[in-house]
Amino acid sequence: MSEHQQEKQEELKSLILMGTCPCCSSNKVKYLEYLTNRTFGFHCFNCGWKSKYNLTELKQASANWFPIQR
Fold this sequence. Notes:
Helix content is 34%, strand content 24%. It is an alpha+beta fold.
């Protein structure tokens, strides 16, 4: 896995699981969903950080959050 992919996974983990901005840890984050191209956008109103992720990136990142125990 590349460093860029790991960074995106950590950002998504912060955004989705903790509900905080990966840049400043603020909880003033707005979520946008673009159904036409299955893209998810986030914008922090505290520090101005913005990013977009596609559905594939979200699926890859979330695959390891809750591993199935056998």
